[in-house]
Every structure is written in structure tokens, then in C-alpha cells.
Amino acid sequence: MAASATTATPTASVLPAAVLDAALTVATSAAMQAGSIIRASVIARTLNRVPGSSEGGNDGGGHLALETKSSSADLVTKFDKECETLVIEMLRGFVITVPNADHVGGGGGGDHDATATTTTTTYGPFGIMSEESFPEGPLPDTPTWIVDPIDGTTAFVHGSFDCCVSIGLAVARRSVLGVVYAPLMQELFTSVRGKGAYCNGSRIAASGCTDPTRAIVVTHTPYDRRAPVIDALMAMNKAYMVDHRVHAVRSYGSAAIDMCGVALGRHDVYVEVGICAWDMCAAATIVEEAGGTLTDVYGGPLDLMRRGMCCAATPALAAMATAVARNAGYREAMMGSA
What we know:
By secondary structure, this protein is α+β, with helices and mostly antiparallel strands. It folds into 2 domains: 168 residues, Fructose-1,6-Bisphosphatase, Chain A, domain 1, CATH 3.30.540.10; 124 residues, D-Maltodextrin-Binding Protein, domain 2. 33% of the residues lie in helices and 23% in strands. The protein contains 8 helices and 17 strands. The strands form 4 sheets. The protein has a 7-stranded mixed sheet with strand order 6-7-8-9-10-11-12, sandwiched between helices. A hairpin with a 4-residue loop joins strand 10 and strand 11. Helix 1 packs antiparallel against helix 2 and helix 5 packs parallel to helix 6. The chain is globular. The N terminus is likely disordered.
């Protein structure tokens, strides 16, 4: 008798390696295709800019269909939506059936093997949380794609390098897979939990820096420009430079890229409040698999839904940075509470 097959509904909070490997392939393809759209738009606008004309400029001459969200600095373009549509369509199509690690039967050869039963489990389609179209609701424990089609939209609008596609997969509210593609830098960061972190296929590691005087720290300019928010940010930057004498304080435009920068050893600390799960999820696995430290902005366990994080090359630098943020009251200034 031929072996029979059944399909079960996945209930485990851990996805098999074969599922994660296949998911990484799909997410990588989606990120690179969306990245090609980003790169083409920036090149078209920057290379076609005419002196004295707004055509090709930061408003795209109408090319971007630029809109604002929470403030005049919180931007969205038609390319955010185009990239999101492409990515979500590809991720929704991800379904994979894998054999289970069981074999029920006689096991002694002969007729006993004819009664063997092979079971399979089908995974997917997974849930989706995405900045532009699916931003609401709690993050479930079930596998969920978390997508930012263009992280660093302001940078993208201005034709700057620091924008990317960020695709993460969370299981039990924890990042287990990440793909961050920065098309203008031509850097592809990938990671599956337990298998290391990579940039363009090469293994990467955080710097290992423990001395603040040898560290580069990254902070961001928030969308919220209320005086208490800016005062807290300036207090943090002053503490880094005056109290801890860091090598430099930098400000770029993409949370995912800056987290990957810590993973790569390009800089050593990045602290942020006000960001969302789609800004952090993909890069979270990359940072931790590169040996970096990832916490809440005040040093507790990272919660993707809590709107803040600190990533650092080492626990020592994380402790320094979270103390600076706490002393400045940065979360309270941004979010209204600790």
C-alpha cells in the first residue's frame, strides 16, 4: 500500500527551518524588486534635475504624488504604496507544505512499511502588518509579516541614500527573520534567527566596542517637533558628546538601515522612540544575530509594539545609551509616559 498523506494546521510557535529558509527567499525577492522601484525613481529625479526648476526636485515635479501624515515631516508617496502593493502580493502568495518528522508504521520492512503514514503541515499565508495599508491592531502570536515598503521616506523624497525596504517575520511577537535592502547603497542585509547575519552574502558582526569614547552614536530627528521632544533629544546629544565624549553623534533617515549599521559595525549605538514594529522587526533579528544588544529604550526587553528601542554593539554601550535616554526623559517627552 502506498504511503498516505495528511495535512495539519500548524500550531507550534516555532517555524521549521525549511519554512524559514523558503520565507527568506520570498522576502528577499520582494525586497529587491521593491528596491528596484525606489532606485529607479531616485535616479530619474536626481539625474533629470534642471537648475532653477522644480522638475525632478524634492516635490518630484508631481512625480512623487507627495502627501503628509502625522506632520509636515511625516511623508508618504505613491512609491510607498506601489512598493507596498508589490511586496504584500508576493508575501500573501507564500504557502509551503513540508513533511513532518514522523513515520508511523511497522518499520520492520515487508508488509509493515506499506502501512506507513506520512503527514505534512502547510504553513501560510501568514498575517501582514504594513505601515501604509495594515498598520492597526495588536501583533498576534501567529506568524506575521511586518513590512515597511520604504523606510526613510523623507530620505527617498530628497534622493538621499538612507532609504530601504524592510521585511520582517515575527512569531510569538518576536522577530525571527529579517530582510533589509538599501537599493541606493546596494546593500542587502538578511538573517534568520540562529543562522547569523549577512550583508550581500557575507557574514557580519557588530563592532564589539565597549568604550563610549570610541563609539559613534546615532539618533534621529523626530516627526514630533514640540519643544519638550526637541529639548529631550538635545539633552541626549549633549550627554553623549560632553559627558561620554563619544566619537560622533550622527543623524540619518532610516531606522532599519541604522540598526543594520550597528550590526555591521558601521556605528555602535542607535536609540529611538516613536518608531513602529515595521521600522524594527526586520533589523531586530539582524542585530542580534550579528552579536549586538537590543533592548527597550530604557533597558528592558524589546517589545516590537512599544514604539522604542536601543540597539548597541555591546551590553556596556546599551547600558550607557539607555541611561542617557532615561535621564533625558525621552520616552515621556515623545509618548507622554514611560
